[in-house]
Design brief:
Protein name: Transglycosylase
Pfam families: SLT
Strand content: under 5%
Keywords: Signal
Family: Belongs to the transglycosylase Slt family.
Helix content: 55-70%
Largest sheet: none
Number of strands: 0
């Protein structure tokens, strides 16, 4: 095995086993219209569900993602509940669910109660100041669905600020804007572990 390939494999193995990356979004003033839009997104009370035009594609996605996540979360019910919430919250925020899974892998290692040294909480390592800025005082960032809703809303906000530049948006999300290490880790986890293409017979027709 050549040295570059070995290095890539070692990095992937370390990434999969690593503890929380300790996200540290920086508190910034939000324009009133932005804060209002983000607050409305957080206030959504719909129960998570798989959002696919083709239910068979949804079932295939859930089965495959569940298989990949099994070592991390052995309990099937908990695993499928998490995956359903990720797919729903990511889709409603206009994000790729597989990207969000990669971010969770890097940020918390899929630990629901992860806390970073700077106070970021939960699966997507959300900083508590976001509750003051766009949420409600009773919001619990360790709640699985609520944490995902915050995290996806925040990443969508950063993508909008950066006009779709994923690397800069991820840097903002982690509080490391301008440095490549964190975006590279998230994109690497996404591409190495979570990328998914529907089986040929389930792919949507053109236009979907």
């Amino acid at each position: 095995m050549n040295a570059p390939r070995l290095a890539c494999l070692l990095l992937a193995a370390a990434l999969w086993a690593a503890p929380a990356w300790a996200g540290a979004q920086r508190e910034e003033a939000l324009a009133a219209n932005v804060a209002s839009a983000m607050s409305r997104s957080i206030a959504d009370v719909n129960a998570p569900r798989l959002v696919f035009d083709n239910p068979h594609e949804g079932a295939a996605w859930l089965a495959e993602m569940s298989r990949r996540l099994q070592k991390r979360i052995p309990d099937q019910w908990l695993r499928e509940r998490l995956l359903t919430a990720v797919q729903y919250e990511a889709t409603r925020a206009g994000l790729d669910p597989q990207l969000v899974l990669g971010l969770i892998q890097v940020e918390s290692g899929f630990k629901k109660y992860a806390i970073s040294p700077v106070g970021a909480r939960g699966l997507m390592q959300v900083m508590p100041f976001w509750v003051r800025s766009i949420g409600a005082s009773g919001h619990n960032l360790f709640d699985l669905t609520l944490n995902l809703r915050y995290g996806c809303t925040i990443l969508r906000h950063y993508l909008d600020i950066e006009r779709g530049n994923l690397f800069r948006a991820l840097g903002r999300y982690n509080g490391s804007l301008g440095r490549a290490e964190y975006p590279n880790l998230v994109v690497g986890a996404w591409r190495s572990h979570w990328q998914w293409t529907p089986p040929a017979g389930l792919q949507q027709t053109a236009g979907h």
